[in-house]
Structures are given as C-alpha cells and as structure tokens.
Description:
Blueprint: H1 5-14, E1 22-27, H2 35-48, E2 54-60, E3 68-75, E4 78-86
Parallel strand pairs: 1-2
Antiparallel strand pairs: 2-3, 3-4
Helix pairs in contact: 1-2
Amino acid sequence: MRGDAVGSLPDALGQVRHDxxxxxxxxxxxxxxxxxxxxxxxxxxxRSARDREMYRLSxxxxxxxxxxxxxxxxxxxxxxxxxxxxxxxxxx
Length: 92
C-alpha cells in the first residue's frame, strides 16, 4: 500500500480481519514527521486499539541519546510501552 503513513493507516487497519492481532512497525520514520503528524499517527493506532488487539514496534530516535527499540501494547485504550533496547543509529 502506498501513501502517506498518517492518511493511509486507518484504511489499512480497516482492511485487517477484526479478530487478527495487528502490529504496526516503523523504523526511523517519525523523526522525519512534523509533531502534529507524529501525534496523529499515534492517535490513529490508539483509535484502532479500542476494539482489537494492537501492538506497535518502533525503532526511532527522538528524545534519546541513541535510537530506541520500543514495544507498545494496548489493553483497550491503555497503552503500555517497554523499551526493548537501544540501537545503533544505522541499525546494527
């Protein structure tokens, strides 16, 4: 699927079987987004987590010394985020 991540994500999530667990993954993407787009991406994932099993696995470099690999899981609308590791800036 091609398109803007923020604009395309709700449609993409809507095409997934409702009983399937979804994992949205992204690596070094959100640092290239304006703050409002980054927030909207998070809101789009959160909205989908209201009534389905939802996970987010991200490797981003926003407010840390090194890129951070994180897993977020939602229990209804309550997210729990765990940092899994710090990463090399070039993915090693």
